[in-house]
UniProtKB/TrEMBL annotation:
NCBIfam families: HTH_metalloreg. PROSITE patterns: HTH_ARSR_2. This is ArsR family transcriptional regulator. The keyword Cell membrane does not apply. InterPro entries: ArsR-like_HTH, HTH_ArsR_DNA-bd_dom, WH-like_DNA-bd_sf, WH_DNA-bd_sf. Keywords: DNA-binding. It comes from the Bacteria. Residues 1-95 form the HTH arsR-type domain. GO terms for molecular function: DNA binding; DNA-binding transcription factor activity. Pfam families: HTH_20.
Amino acid sequence: MVSTGGHEDRLFAALANGTRREVLRLLREGGPQPVQALAAHFDMRRPSLSEHLRVLREAGLVSGERTGRQRIYRLEAFRLAEVREWLGPYERLWPERTCRSTCERTSDSPE
């Protein structure tokens, strides 16, 4: 059985959830935001969103800073470089696969 690093597992697990990816998109497009502003985009209670934010924090994808009574969340995009690095060896296979799929569809279609 192969075991990967705990941090890498947390990173990919955090990205596996659509709500968490949407939080990352909101922070990318809107910059640092308080949890209240982020919560306005979701049909869920704040404790549920806070759990998603906790997972993102533990994966190093966001950071939270207390400002008065609010916690402001910020995207830590540099962590996504680890994902790119992990995917890098597979990237050379994508054009071949894409071409093969496209070529197969083209050859199957009537002329």
